[in-house]
Amino acid sequence: MSALQEVFDKATTALLLQGRKCSDGAGCMYRLPDGRKCAIGHLISDKQIEIFNVRMNAPVYELSDILLMEIIPDNDLEETKEFLDALQVAHDGSDPTNFEESFRNKANDVAYKYLLNPIKVQT
Questions:
Q1: Between the CA of residue 119 and those of 23, 35, 36, 68, what are the distances in Å?
Q2: Which of 27, 28, 53, 85 could covalently link to 60 via disulfide, CB atoms 3.0 to 4.6 Å apart?
Q3: Domain residue extents for the chain
Q4: What was the pLDDT predicted at 32?
Q5: DSSP secondary structure string, 51-84?
Q6: Helices in the chain by DSSP H: which ranges?
Q7: Are 3 and 73 spatial neighbours (Cβ–Cβ below 8 Å)?
């Protein structure tokens, strides 16, 4: 299984099991105090948040290159940025009133673009 597929499966499964967007009303966030996380937030550990001083509403392109290489090791850095940005956009652009279907459709578009298997988890 490719590294991108593993990351896609981990992020999408966690987010669909969570069942709703990670948004504070003003915008999407990597994490919120109530425990919700966005697609990328599910890929970043508490320790990485602290070490890299991650701003909770930063776009993927503002994250440290070292952090990005830790999320998807042994992958081209530019492809990693583009892939994670696409997952972030799928989360951020999902309709909160119909989150599961909206996110599933957008995330499966990402899977198609990167030649990955679609979302497996059924909620």
A1: 22, 23, 20, 22
A2: 85
A3: 3-113
A4: 92
A5: HTT--TT--GGGS-HHHHHHHSTTS-HHHHHHHH
A6: 3-18, 46-51, 65-71, 77-92, 99-113
A7: yes
